[in-house]
UniProtKB/TrEMBL annotation:
Parts of the chain that traverse the membrane: none
Pfam families, A to Z: adh_short_C2 (PF13561)
Keyword Disulfide bond: no
A single GO molecular function term of this UniProt record: oxidoreductase activity
SUPFAM superfamilies: NAD(P)-binding Rossmann-fold domains
Organism of this sequence: Aequoribacter fuscus
Family classification: Belongs to the short-chain dehydrogenases/reductases (SDR) family.
Signal peptide: none
Protein name: Short-chain dehydrogenase/reductase SDR
Length: 256
């Protein structure tokens, strides 16, 4: 259990990566503060974690609100006395259009939720982590910041700003014991993608096969497997890693 007894806040804990990260972090021994806008969704996740012998609480939060971010972190402190890790997974995805066609309001919302929301959360946890002399922040980004993809422009702009936030905070917080890293996810097999497949005439078989053939590992990586990179970055095994951007996409992007 590489996260045993660590207190970890995870935002954006909806279907897919956020939910997988909550369940997996709990399985690795973390006490998880499950957060998203949907009260019913996070209550269900926390209840399931507790039923499986883990420990979790659910705290609703819209990361576009300063007040709600403050309340989320304060609840974690009031409940557990500290915060060891923060996973910024909350996001907003504009409509699937070319970037030039995206309504500006949707692009600014993506930037506000993804990047500014992560900054809001960091501002709340950093003072507590500084007092502890230790902490880890993991920002969840996307392969679309490496490889521009149709329909992903506004979303990728938000995630690109998040990547820069990682680098900036890693430098500014150097020497405090707080590490800040990014995990860049690619195509992931999970609930959101399965919903997309179910909308296809053949159940998505052709698309799945095509995508799998284009990824070096030969399959679309499962979200729960990709989430393991998050636990590593949160853990003490990554004690000397900060400011890094870890590609978690089955080799879909190979850096040179």
């Amino acid at each position: 259990m590489i996260l045993k007894d660590k207190i970890v806040i995870i935002t954006g804990a909806g279907p897919g990566m956020g939910q997988a990260a909550c369940r997996g972090a709990a399985a690795e021994g973390a006490k998880v503060v499950v957060s998203a806008r949907s009260v019913d969704a996070i209550n269900a996740i926390a209840a399931d974690i507790n039923a499986q012998g883990g420990e979790a609480i659910a705290v609703p939060c819209d990361v576009s609100s300063d007040e709600q971010c403050k309340a989320l972190v304060q609840t974690a402190i009031d409940t557990y006395g500290r915060v060891d890790g923060l996973v910024n997974s909350a996001y907003y995805h504009p409509d699937w259009n070319d970037l030039i066609s995206h309504p500006i309001e949707q692009v600014t919302q993506a930037l506000d939720v993804i990047a500014v929301g992560a900054l809001r959360m960091a501002r709340e946890v950093v003072p507590h982590m500084k007092k502890q002399g230790k902490g880890s922040i993991v920002n969840i980004s996307t392969l679309a910041t490496r490889k521009p993809m149709p329909g992903e422009g506004g979303y990728a702009m938000g995630k690109s700003a998040l990547n820069q936030l990682t680098r900036q905070l890693a430098v500014e917080l150097g020497g405090t014991g707080i590490r800040v890293n990014t995990a860049l996810m690619g195509w992931m097999d999970g609930v959101p993608l399965q919903h997309f497949f179910s909308s296809q005439p053949d159940g998505g078989d052709a698309f799945r096969a095509q995508r799998a053939s284009e990824i070096p590992v030969g399959h679309i990586p499962p979200d729960h497997a990709c989430a393991q990179a998050i636990y590593f970055l949160l853990s003490d095994y990554a004690s000397e890693i900060t400011g890094a951007a870890l590609d978690v996409n089955g080799g879909d992007w190979v850096a040179v």
